[in-house]
């Protein structure tokens, strides 16, 4: 008798649980379909928005009274970034290990009526960075913009200098940059205001012959920038921006006329002044990624999605190297 009652009870429970499981599965499937539809719709909207911004870019934000820290301001694109930021009303902190070059940049900015202060620092050592950050915060307070312009070689140095040691290259291009971000980004997060700018050379998109350490370092800088973007997104911090700039193919000075590119009519070369103006345009529009020249950003994205063989053929065609005429 008891066995029959137990069997009837189990039969009832199984009869009741079966439709319940079916309902739960149906509910889960509906939620999944809604999530997929939401992702697809938003992805399509993002594509349309990106296409729209090609023809009508976002407005330029003001950098007036922003405090911009430029690492590597003694020469090249770092110097031009400092000068142009100062002309836009920013308070520029110039940092370079070459005291003479750095002071020339500061003096030039002040002569033009801008606001600048210089610090001499070899950022390859962490204790130097810690001391620099302490001085800057004590004397100037909050740093709202960080530009790191170290670790990007000129085309001439790529051809005339031997490959660097992997530790030295990574320390200069990546590790020092990480330490700087670690010292200044927490304040940006706390205020929900700031901008980190990461510069990578062509080596961050494609291998350069006999320059494996450089390529590794530049790929790593790209990964660091993308990790920072995800960190900000996951923590729902929308007032701090990260801009990744691919300097492609090369930034050269006006007097370097002995360089020969495979397709000079399309790639060409650009001056440091023109490159800095292009970088600041992308930064002031809060773009997540840009390139110098701008038209080659699509190439960087294309190389990420094509099959390996196709990217190899494309790199052979474009030939990212340079020769002396």
Explained architecture:
The chain crosses the membrane at residues 36-55. Keywords: Membrane, Oxidoreductase, Transmembrane, Transmembrane helix. Belongs to the short-chain dehydrogenases/reductases (SDR) family. InterPro entries: NAD(P)-bd_dom_sf, SDR_fam. With 325 residues, this protein is of the alpha/beta class. It has a single domain (67-324), classed as Rossmann fold, CATH 3.40.50.720. It has helices at 2-55, 76-87, 99-111, 126-140, 155-160, 166-191, 212-234, 272-284, 297-305, 308-318; strands at 67-71, 91-96, 115-120, 145-148, 194-201, 240-247, 259-260, 289-292, 323-324. Helix 2 packs parallel to helix 3, helix 2 crosses helix 8 (272-284) and helix 6 packs parallel to helix 7.
Task: Summarize the entry for a quick read.
The chain has helices at 2-55, 76-87, 99-111, 126-140, 155-160, 166-191, 212-234, 272-284, 297-305, 308-318, and strands spanning 67-71, 91-96, 115-120, 145-148, 194-201, 240-247, 259-260, 289-292, 323-324. The chain has 325 residues and is α/β, with parallel strands linked by helices. The protein has one domain (67-324): 3-Layer(aba) Sandwich (Rossmann fold).
Please give the number of β-strands. Answer: 9
> Could you tell me the strand content as a percent range?
5-15%
**What structural class is derived from the secondary structure elements?**
alpha/beta
Describe the oligomeric state of these chains in a short phrase.
single chain
The portion of residues assigned to helices is 55-70%
Please state the CA-atom Rg, rounded to the nearest Å.
26 Å
CATH topology call:
Rossmann fold
The low-confidence runs, each spanning 5 or more residues with pLDDT under 50, are: 155-160, 254-259, 320-325
| Number of domains as seen in the coordinates | 1
Average per-residue pLDDT, rounded, comes to: 80
Q: Overall 3D geometry?
A: globular
Total helices: the number is 10
User: Termini separation (Å)?
Assistant: 103 Å
Largest sheet: 7 strands, parallel
The name of the CATH superfamily reads NAD(P)-binding Rossmann-like Domain
GO molecular function, one term: oxidoreductase activity
InterPro entries: NAD(P)-bd_dom_sf (IPR036291), SDR_fam (IPR002347)
Family: Belongs to the short-chain dehydrogenases/reductases (SDR) family.
Keywords: Membrane, Oxidoreductase, Transmembrane, Transmembrane helix
